[in-house]
Amino acid sequence: MDTVEAAAGLEVQDETGNAVSSFGSLFEIVVQLGILQAAGITHIVCIRQDVEASFIRPNFPGLFTYLIVDIADSVRENIIHHIPKVNDFISYCLQQGGKVLVHGNGGISRSAAMVIAFVMENYGLSYKDAFSYVQARRFCINPNEAFANQLMEYEPIYKARLSHKNGQWSYHAGSLKRKDREEDEMMEDREDMVV
Question: Where would I find the Tyrosine-protein phosphatase domain in this sequence (predicted)?
Answer without folding.
Answer: 10-160
